[in-house]
## 1
Amino acid sequence: MSPFTPSCPLTSDPDTLRARAREAGYLFLPGLLEPEPLLTVRREILEICARHHFVSREHPLDDAIAAPGVRFREGDPEYMVAYDEIQRLESFHAVAHRPALLGVLRTLFGEEVLVHPRNIARVMFPQNNRFTTPAHQDYVHIQGATETWTAWFHLGDCPLELGGLEVLAGSHRAGVLPVRAAYGAGGLGVETEQLGLEWHGGPFACGDVLLFHSLCVHRASDNLTPDRVRLSVDFRYQGRSCPVNDGSLLPHFQRLSWEEIYRGWRSDEFQHYWKRHELHLTDFSRRWHESRDAG
């Protein structure tokens, strides 16, 4: 595996930045975000984890040490109850709108940015590697415009052993790949050996951002620590003039309404903001999910 190629020096050169994006399908932006807002979200998520007994009370909360024997994952009832609380965090949703991040995306798209409100947080337990997110493409889950990009970053530092994200550089040029059933988030995987491409990855410092195209194959690496929980986020973006799937404007998992999520927020700046724009909405197709189920 090769290390990520940093793209921060290109943010003031739109043509070169876009050429890098077209070639690699990803942009790695070390130190793009100020750590303080990310650490605030981290602390609030860990407080929720503590209330639900996900993390050990015998260690400092910021260490994110998993409680003995606790290995929940998305879909488990205990996980989802805690996740509802995470979805209600105003600070979590606000981080998706950080000006430094939107500035890079505005340069990339050459137009104003639509921030998808369907924001995703991941609480990944150690010693649970059967459910590590497999190699996949986001497009089959997002749909709408293929020129939708995901921002992935860790809330805090993420050394290699904690299990960051890896991308298959250039894989977005292969189009939508056939899917198969897989464990891990999304439940869909793809085969990559036939592409003959190279994986890129590496450690993340707090504030580093990985941006990647909706067709760029990516995967998580295993959390190899004995006891640490990994906290990360997935935010999605596109040019405002491009079509967007209507499901991308709904809360993640749709267990809560926007009104339930917004209850108690101090500001309405990031509430229903997408309704201020005239958007081209598209329907969601289940053909990839049906092909997985048929197989």
## 2
Amino acid sequence: MNHQQDDKESPLTIAPADARNLPTQSMYQNRVADYWNAEENPVNLELGKLDDLYHHHYGIGAADRSVLDEPDPVLRRERITAELHRLEHAQAELLAARLGPLSPADRVFDAGCGRGGGSVVANLRYGCHADGVTISAKQAAFANEQARKRGIDGKVRYHHRNMLDTGFETGAYAASWNNESTMYVELELLFAEHARLLRRGGRYVVVTGCYNDTYGRASREVSLINAHYICDIHPRSEYFRAMARNRLVPVHVQDLTADTIPYWELRREAEHLVTGIEDTFLSAYKNGSFQYLMIVADRV
């Protein structure tokens, strides 16, 4: 992507175009980028089409299972899709609520932004500036088009960059987050970049699936999830160790495992959206080997 025009408009958030035309990536990251450049999964696209908020994460909260009783097959599909999207959006709002207090003058950083829904949610809540980063050029272009359609492209921008090495200005951000994207990178490198970008007292939030150290090594289910998404799920303990080494001090930890199970149970019934990994997630959550966690930390 060409960010030369963006450079003139927002020098705080855009690195020089000649230095950042393409993100520096490992061979593994190139494979991940190829995966997301090719991805056209209905469970991501069909839900986002409802209100042009495209989330690349899972849902939380009690599900309205009455949608499964809808006798009309077309309406049943529509109602299931809408309910799954509602649960996804509830997760995005939960994360965004932990970023504040923020002002319209503040800048936030969305690491591994996908098709951009999280940055839009933050902007709608706080009126803040947002920079999203993805190693998928296709995702960045899609998200920027959505921002233009909403008329918020002056404040919300997406960049084809590596979230481990963004080139953004040190200390420029009041808040930052990862929403189900940490399993694609080394936590030590990731948290070092967040600590560099955040101002002192800035807030970092992560929502992630992690394997439960008390279970032992990664379970069979966790290995299957890794293979499905070409990722490497980290143990829960590594999040806290890597944060401590990078001046990120947890102030709130919330186990969302029980809250996400209704989403997966409903998604398993959505014939038009299933990906084949639903039963694996449910088994992992229920046998205790896998957890869905939110960690909120302050940069000290």
## 3
Amino acid sequence: MTGPEKPVIEFPSVLDSAYKDYKRHVKVGDIMSREVFTTTAETPMAKAAKIMGERHIGSLVVMKFGTPVAIVTERDLLSKVLAGGLDLETTLVGQVMSFPLIKICPTLEIREAARTMIHKKGRLVVFGCGELVGIITASDLIREMPDAPETSLGVDEFMTGDIVSVSEDETIAGVAGIMGEKRIGSVIVNREGKPSGIFTERDLLSKFLIQGKTLDTPVGTASSFPIKTAPAGISIHEAAKVMAEQHVRRLPLMKKKQLIGIITARDLVEAYAR
């Protein structure tokens, strides 16, 4: 007669452990975007917006006499130009760009890069041997976020609970003004009083500004439907994985079928940087 079966204890394989350890020590040079798009201070913001929209990027490095000196972002476009009532055609990049550049080296580990991004409050440009070699965004960092104790924290602690919602009948111009004034990158779009879509600053660039469409269009016609969500309480690593797989930078969070918050790629970077 045989005794009761002993439970099988599974241990992570050597390869699994090695891979997790590798992920914790990934360098900036391994994940940075090597193709860096540039502009000049004399470029009209309309042209800068067109470049960002066509390339599906959120920033341009500003060059002067062949040297990188500043950066202009889609957030500058929203908060300084559209929300400020400035004209895209006559406002120049030099009037709204951010400087000095936040520089890091390609040998820096990504967690240190995350800490620099949060401390300096900006996008990171990568310099090697004095030359511009790449750029790092929050999206780049969350794609490589390791499965480690520092990423096991729950998203609820870092999410934004103050959700900005608009009716699907609100115009794009009105929504852009709200986003720029509040310095946020997205709004939840309500249909029949219920959250059903999301509109982002990238939508503004790619669907309107580069196509020359009127901003009097109702936001409901340009939002992403249906809204992509995740359950509240998941870890920041799980949220990062969802964002990377769905190619989004903002993730609304649900609890008992209610929208209770939103977590962004930058929120995840801040959590990882702790």
